[in-house]
Structures are given as C-alpha cells and as structure tokens.
Amino acid sequence: MASSQAEVPLSQDKIITAPYGSWKSPITADVVSGTSKRLEGTDVDSQGHLFWLESRPSESGRAVLVKEAEKPGDEPIDITPKEFAVRTLTQEYGGGAFRISGDIVIFSNYKDQRLFKQSISSKDSCLVPITPDYGGPVVSYADGIFDSRFDRYITVMEDRRESSINATTTIAAVPLDDGNIQEPKVLVSGNDFYAFPRLDPKGERMAWIEWSHPNMPWDKAELWIGYISDNGDVYKRVCIAGCDPKIVESPTEPKWSPTGQLFFITDRKNGFWNLHKWVESNNEVLPLYSLSAEFARPLWIFGMNSYEFIKSDVEKTLIACSYRQDGRSYLGILDDVQGSISLLDIPFTDIDNITSWNDYLYVEGASAVHPSSLAKVTLDGHRVNVVDFKIVWSSSLDSLKYESYFSLPELIEFPTEIPGQNAYAYYYPPSNPFYQASQVEKPPLLLESHGGPTSETRGILHLSIQYWTSRGWAFVDVNYGGSTGYGREFRERLLGRWGIVDVDDCCSCARFLVEHGKADMERLCITGGSAGGYTTLAALAFRDTFKAGASLYGVADLSLLRAETHKFESHYLDNLVGNEKDYFERSPINFVDKFSCPIILFQGLEDKVVPPDQARKIYQALKEKGLPVALVEYEGEQHGFRKAENIKFTLEQEMLFFARLVGRFNVADSVTPIKIDNFDEH
Questions:
Q1: pLDDT-derived band of residue 229, with 50, 70 and 90 as boundaries?
Q2: Among 158, 202, 325, 536, which residue has the fewest nearby CB atoms (within 10 Å)?
Q3: With 0-12 CB in 10 A as exposed, 13-18 as middle and 19+ as buried, what is 343?
C-alpha cells in the first residue's frame, strides 16, 4: 500500500514526452501527508513571546501549543505535555481552544474537554483543571477571555449532558482561583448559539454575538452588549446590530479598542462584511470604511481574529485588517479618523488571522508559492510601511524544494447557467520540469468542489493539489454560487438551491475548460469533502459531465443529514434546500438508477457531522447496481482526516482509482490498489 519515492530524472537536458497522468514526481503522498500541519491559533504573552497552536498528522492530528524559539537557531518549545492535546469540540468544528494572559494559558483538553490552567513561564509547571469532571467529554468550552476584574475566565460553554444532538449553549464564567472547582456560572443564556464574548478594558461591559435557528451566523445574527454589575452578573443588555427587522445583517468579531470603543464587522447596506463602530452616546452604528470586499470570514469555527488594534503615538485608532476582493487578500492599516486604508506590501495573497504586538504583526497567510504560514511583519514608526517580513512557522518547511514543479493557479471567471451570472475558480495546469505530453493530448481534469457549502476555496499552495498537477493532471478548484468572499448576493445564490446551483456551476466550469482546450472531455473527474462530497454525488447522479468521482465524508441523503447531524447545522438545510419534495429529489441516494460512472468513497467512523451510514448506503446501492465502487472507512477519524497515514492512503487510492478507470495511462508511483467492486476480478 505504501508509495515509494517516485524516481525523477536527474538531468533536465532532455524533456520526456509521456502521457498526462503518468509523469514521475517527487511530491509523493508521503510528502503531502507529512507536510500538512495545521495552524489553529496564535497569541502573545505579556513579554511579547509568540505562541501558536499546531495540529500534527504525524501524532494522529494531536494539537500542541508551541512557544517561539528563545533565540535564533534554537528550536521552538512544546508547551503542551505529551498526555494532553489542545482542542475543543464545541459545535464540532471547534476553534478558540486556548487563550493567554500574562504568563498563564487556559486551554481545552481534547480527551475530556475540561479547561486547564498552565503557567507558560516555567517548564515544570503543573496543569490545574478549572472546570468539573463530568465523567466524559460532555461539556465543551471555546472562545474564552480573561476577566481580571473578577479573576475568572469567560467562555462559550456547550453542555451536552442532557442531549448530544440538542446541546445547550451559553456564555459562562469559570473561577480562576486554585481553590475548589465550581460549576461554571452562566452569564448569558436563552438563545441557540453564542460567540465572541469580549470585555472592554475596564471589565464593565461585555459584547457578544448570538443567533438562533434556522439561521446560520452568516445569514442573520445579533450583536449585544451587557453591562457587568459589581457581583459579576450581566444586568443590562443593549442590542447594537441585527435587531432591526428592516436591516438584514450578520455582525461578527466585536472588539473593544484600548480606549473602550466597540468595533465590529457587519454586512449591512452594501452586502459585504465591512468594519463598523458603535457610538455609545447616541447608540449609533457608523461604517469605518465602505468597500465591496470581505473583511471577515463565515463563522464556522471560534476564535477568528481578522483585525487588531495597533499602538499609535497619535490620538487616533489604527487598525490592522485584511480583506478579500476579486479572489485575493490584502493587508492594510485603517485610520479611523481619516477613514482611509494604507495597504501593506507583503508576499501573501491569502490572509486569515492577525495578532499584534508593539510595532509588529503576526499574520497567518499563504500564496501560490507559500503554504499555510505565520509571518512576523515589522512596521515602521508611522505604521504604514513594512520594514521586515519573516516566516516564523510553515505547514511545510520543505515545500520550496519542489518549487520547480509548482503549478501556479489562474483565477478564472466563467459563465453559469443563469445568463449574466458568472462564478469563479482557480485553474492549475499540469506542470513538471522534466515532462511534457504530446501536442494532440488534452490533460485529465480533477475538479474539486469545496465544503461548507458556505465557504471559499483560495488560490494558495497546497501540496495535495501539486501532487496531481506534477503527475500531469489539470486541477480546478471552484467557487460556485453560494461561496463566500464575493458578498451576500453571491452567497445567497444557494438559498433554496443547494444541489442545483453548485452542481450547475461545477459542470459549467468543467465544460468551460474543455471548450478552451484546457481539459479532456472524456477524462473529467470530480472530488469533494463534506458538502463538496454532496456536490460530487449530486453531479454524478443528476448530470453526465463527469466520468468518475470521489466523495470524502460526503452527504448522500439530505433528510438523513437533517435528522442526524449536530445542533450547529441541524437547521442549515432549511434555508439551503426547501420543502420535503426538494429534500427527496436532491438526495443522490434516492436516484441510484441515475448513476452511471465509477465512485470511490472515504469515511471517518467517528464523524458526527455526516454519519458513516451515508457512505455505506450509497456504496451498497451502487454495488448492487453493478457500478465500479469502493468504500474506505477509517477508525478514529471524525469529519475530516487528521492522521498522516489516512491522508496519504486517501490521496494515493483516489489517484489510482481515477487512473485505472478513466485515465488511459499507467501511474509512475508504486501503489497497491484496493479492491474495486464490480471492476476487479473476484
């Protein structure tokens, strides 16, 4: 089953002509799975030391808090003891699993979901639990903040003791003294969901985001503030945004400035997530800078940090922020007084979270030649120019050794089924410095449909994509209607039309590439995970564009998903699908007779978002129909694969499956194929 390191010609004197898909590449599945560390948050302590949370496939996806090296040449220091892992299961997707104040970190421990307190200034510090032991991981915490006024930790709390499907979510306070562990004190409750509890500098006011079924936080949410009494209770509440029925908006990321002004991001009026501030004296919301660009991302996970206040010597508020426009990110400094943005010149074209300290920023980002990375960006005295840019963490330190193989993404805009409406994608042509195909051959194409579906794919360096292109595949990553990054109107194209718009757009993109000579019409394949897996299955069941597909933990039965999925997404489909007839007619499992091409399925057995029965039902049905089909199940994996060996196996078998069934070429890698039902001899 293991792949060997594919041999690559040592000299570039002669370019080898060989069929697309058969090229040898050093970017093996071992390389991809070994370089897929994930960054899951950053913070700084009182001395300005940087800490980050990284998940490691080599340790079965264990997430570890790491401190930057003490001095150049030293190695970063693991803060999390080996018997612990920093990860919260709140809303299944987690995020916001730790917070640092002074020399103390509070973190969620993966195994039991309890909060622990740890000193990060002492190597031998003991870990102290601060939440009760409920006998199992039934209460989770996320997105916490320190409250120095009452020596406590305020956090979103998800309680699954009474119901694992319909958990109770609140904002609660956890005492930080080292005395007896107490039951967390609920401060805010009554709604379905909460996020972003944030205290003002004096600890007298708290802001938060809340929303209720059937809305997702990007559909409609509310921003509230509560005043804190002398005994620590929230005694007065004011709705700042989202409560006016005349304004449809989804506020997010509230944050208090050092002077106590409340800032936040919302998409009122122009339909794009822009920065705003609240004027308390007359309860007025003012835009800071209006732009047809997204200054925030959809709230799938906790702990997002799209902007930061930076220190300035003058009497004004300077905000380091990023925004996405036309398929790329920009980093800038927003001047609150002048209402202007000064763009900062850095190599990243994709930016996520920002952390600040004195005259520099820590920016999570990537580009077409930078994998997911963390950079230290040093600013000049005026905070308007970059004087130094340095990568301090990379998900793939060795990736640059393969740079000559990299396929650079081309942002394409293509027409959809709806006249006058276009969608977007990143196209990666085949690329290998030692190989070329004959001039008459067009490459096989793998189209990826991203998950969510309210999400966005980005044109950055993923070795998992270069794995395909360096072997002679063309690859296209589609932002179909309903994706984020292009404003509310584009995002809402999918309302009531999931399984139609996304499928049509993926088919339109594939045909567009065929018409422009960039892909072979007879070798079009489609892949996707989660919601992207649903789009994959729906495209294969209801359209005839693709010749084979791979579904990773994908949805086959919309009604079953609605009945079995977790609370956060339990009403998500209400807005995306429609009535019972729509649920039935858009579920691929109900139309097995319409499938006509090979499919391979990959599924984690501990997945609570898309339970394993979905993959098993589609596998059994296709097997009985006589179509070539394979099912791979992974013990210990949830929604998305975290273990290196499973990431590797999935990539190898997906590639080999397509090559054997539609490729018309022999692969260069030595990989043992799994059995394909209705294809391999018994």
A1: very high
A2: 202
A3: exposed
Q: Let me know if 286 is exposed, middle or buried by CB neighbors in 10 A (0-12, 13-18, 19+).
A: exposed
Per DSSP, what are the bridge partners of residue 631?
A: 601
Query: pLDDT tens digit string along 655-670?
Result: 999 999 998 888 999 9
Find where tokens 């005492």 sit: 175
Q: Which of 3-7, 199-203, 381-385 has the lowest mean pLDDT?
A: 3-7
Q: Give how far Cα 259 sits from Cα of 262, 323, 388, Å.
A: 9, 24, 29
The tokens 């920002």 sit on which residue? 354
Cα distances (angstroms) measured from residue 297 to each of 167, 222, 304, 324: 25, 16, 8, 9
In Å, how far are 4, 147, 457, 594, 615 from 603, measured between CA atoms?
25, 42, 22, 23, 7
- Which residues of 69-160 form beta strands (DSSP E)? 77-78, 98-101, 104-108, 115-119, 128-129, 139-147, 152-159
pLDDT tens string 129-144: 999 999 999 999 999 9
Q: Which residues of 523-547 are buried (b: 16+ CB within 10 A; e: fewer)?
A: bbbbbbbbbbbbbbbbbbbbeebbb
CB 503 within 8 Å of CB 535: yes
3-state helix, strand, coil in the chain (%, to 5): 20, 35, 50
Q: Between 339 and 237, where is the model more confident?
A: 237
Tell me the two tokens of residue 174: 């956890």
Parallel/antiparallel/unpaired status of strands 139-147 and 152-159? antiparallel
- Whether the CB-CB separation of 64 and 54 falls below 8 Å is answered with yes
- What Å distances lie between residue 412 and 409, 477, 585, 616, CA to CA? 9, 10, 31, 36
- pLDDT 10s digits, 296-324: 999 999 999 999 999 766 677 899 999 99
Closest CA to 665 of 510, 471, 517, 463: 471
Task: Give me 262's structure tokens.
Answer: 């409340």
How far, in whole angstroms, is CA 249 from its chain's centroid? Answer: 22
- Torsion of the alpha carbons at 125, 129, 130 and 134, rounded to the nearest 10: 180
Q: By the 8 A CB rule, do 219 and 199 touch?
A: no
